[in-house]
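Colleagues,

For the teaching module next term, I've prepared a clean inverse folding example: a structure given as tokens, and then the sequence designed for it. I'd like students to try predicting residues themselves before seeing the answer, so please don't circulate the second half yet.
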């Protein structure tokens, strides 16, 4: 179940980046300005590099053992968020987005800003950064630099359009806040997707052949302090002749 959910999320991430690369390639081909064309070509290559990273992680099955997708991010809500992003990319790709004049240049940046905003999601960035740490031979994704490049280019090429100016300011604010959220999520998401645990004593393997009590593992990995109680099933099994009291004196 965990492996299936992790794979589903990685496939959706790849779909979003792959669609963005195709869209930016289209913008590059249709742009009338050489500088604008070169910019979109660079953006397309960066998205293609992200796509190759997702593919490497999927094909190597690294998500099964290396904690690419932290277990506390494997939620249906995240899957729905990424699926909505994939649908957005597909709907934009299906439209006719030409770059034939000044107005169309602005329109292309506004369309692309929707995709970049999706990919600025702290969870999306965290997964890609963690993937970059684990994928052999893959360069550091440099997502923050990618966003700054996009925002700066939008400010240069769309200086006189109020909607573009407002979008630039919103994106700048979001990038700054997103970096802080990524750091917070990273600190809270160190628990890998698959945790080797002894079937008998419940100790957790941490490094090589080192095993530690599960309470110490959780404290070190996610800062959780464990307390003890008695679930109803164990109460019935071990104390069947006495009532189980869940709280109080």
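(Answer key — instructors only)
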């Amino acid at each position: 179940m965990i492996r299936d959910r992790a794979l589903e999320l990685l496939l959706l991430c790849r779909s979003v980046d792959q669609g963005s690369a195709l869209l930016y390639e289209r913008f590059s081909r249709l742009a009338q300005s050489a500088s604008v064309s070169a910019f979109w070509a660079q953006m397309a290559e960066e998205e293609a590099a992200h796509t190759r990273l997702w593919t490497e992680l999927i094909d190597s099955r690294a998500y099964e053992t290396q904690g690419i997708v932290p277990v506390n991010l494997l939620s249906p809500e995240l899957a729905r968020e990424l699926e909505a992003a994939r649908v957005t990319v597909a709907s934009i790709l299906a439209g006719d987005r030409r770059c034939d004049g000044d107005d169309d240049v602005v329109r292309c940046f506004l369309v692309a800003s929707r995709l970049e905003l999706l990919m600025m999601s702290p969870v999306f960035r965290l997964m890609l950064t963690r993937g970059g740490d684990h994928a052999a031979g893959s360069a550091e994704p440099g997502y923050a630099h990618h966003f700054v490049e996009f925002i700066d280019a939008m400010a240069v090429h769309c200086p006189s359009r109020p909607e573009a100016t407002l979008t630039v300011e919103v994106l700048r604010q979001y990038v700054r806040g997103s970096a802080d959220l990524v750091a917070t999520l990273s600190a809270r998401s160190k628990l890998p997707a698959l945790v080797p645990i002894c079937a008998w004593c419940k100790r957790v393997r941490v490094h090589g052949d080192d095993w530690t009590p599960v309470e110490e593992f959780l404290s070190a990995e996610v800062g959780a302090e464990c307390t003890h109680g008695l679930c109803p099933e164990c109460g019935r099994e071990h104390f069947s002749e006495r009532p189980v009291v869940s709280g109080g004196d």
